[in-house]
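Today's session is about reading a structure prediction critically. Students often jump straight to the picture, but the first step is always the sequence itself: look for stretches that repeat, for charged clusters, for runs of hydrophobic residues. Only then move on to the predicted structure, which in these notes is written as discrete structure tokens rather than atom positions. Here is the chain we will use throughout the hour.
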Amino acid sequence: MTALTLSTAAAPGLRADAIVIGVAKGANGPSVAPGAEAVDKAYDGRLAGVLETLGASGAEGEVTKLPAPAGFKAPVVVAVGLGAEPEKDAGFDAEALRRAAGAAARALAGAKKAAFALPLAEAADAGVVAEGVLLGAYSFDAYKESAKDGKDTKGARSKGNGKAPLAEAALLGGKPRDKAFKAAVERAAAVAEELNRARDLVNTPPNDLNPEAFAAVAQAAAKEHGIKVQVLDEKALVKGGYGGILGVGAGSASGPRLVKLSYTSSKAKKSLAFVGKGITYDSGGISLKPAGHNETMKCDMAGAAAVFAAVVAAARLGLEVNVTGWLALAENMPSGSATRPGDVLRMYSGKTVEVLNTDAEGRLVLADALWAASQEKPDAIIDVATLTGAMMLALGSRTYGIMANDDAFRAAVHEAAEESGEPAWPMPLPEHLRKGMDSPTADIANMGERMGGGLVAGLFLREFVGEGITWAHLDIAGPAFNEGGPFGYTPKGGTGTAVRTLVRVAEQVALGDLG
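Below is the predicted structure for this chain, in token form.
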């Protein structure tokens, strides 16, 4: 991961491959953002005009490179757009800084060192810039031969995929001896490293990441960070009566797992349970997905990856709250042993579910994990899942939906998401949609009305939350996997969505600031 330092050095004398500055979109053209005064002075105060001549406007995510002025030890200045210029005496939005830093870091792939002269008015700004750099510099090259030595198959220097991530970033204007600045950057590093670990898991091909392999990754991380871990294999799941997880995994040669990760703090007064959907590959089962809908289904374990990363991050940050993560892992495949449409499963809670569609499998594994989490009586449960295409239709590819059995808690989770830079939107749980899941054979069916399918899924999950427990459901189907081009600090492929929201919720609960 990119190394971070806080620096009080002046931009002209710093040895680096590039100096990164911010440019805002003003009413009369681009304007140079605070932090870049020394750079602007070296251009005789004409840097904004030079950038405008080069076509820069200051629009968010825009990257413009130009030769550094005479006397600078860095050869290149990288101007990155921050979006609209803030009102007088107002600072730049945290997410604007985060995205700008990420865009610049990605543009500097292959560089050994870059100095970031972005606006750092306070410690929090250093934290978001650090986070943006670390997330934007991310690349997943484990399966690319050219990435191993930066050369293509003909021995020439690779362009693009063969470039290593930015090796080092110095945050100019940071205060290396200031405790608040140091803490902000250290927090950013811990969260970003675990978020990038979640991205790695999402991007790993399903032939290398089955439920057993995912559980092994969790076990190794738990050992490293002092987290208690328990893994229920097929035999233990059968003995425990986890019919939902077993039913989904029945068609696969790779058996299912339920992983429990427990981080405890001696100073904790509250407890949280995070539950993640971990379908390591989703073919749809007997209700097979058509071509064009199954190529990216390695990402169907993104919820479990987010939960795993959030628990480890909480441990690394030493948060004063107990956090338990439940990873419901299975592979949904068709075979002679697979669950069929019309089968009835007896869940861990004792309820029976008629399976009308084997491609509505995520709710089945989550139901067992939610009930297991409920038995420990946490103060709140949050589940995370790439659950429904319906949520993508409702909110698009960059925003996830939040449902809950408590309006105040839903609002608090939404606020945590927005503070973290993760677009989310509160969604209802309309009671009239529950009737559509009535079954003549079982207690409930795993399908209901087609319209409002994301809300129907939320209502199904609510059935398996223990009485009196506050619960929220995050449907991250849209933003969990970016099939388009990279933007800001978001790469193509796995994004790590929901990690920062979960960590923020845990921090707020630890401080007694959440609901």
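Discussion point for the tutorial: The longest helix spans residues 179-203.
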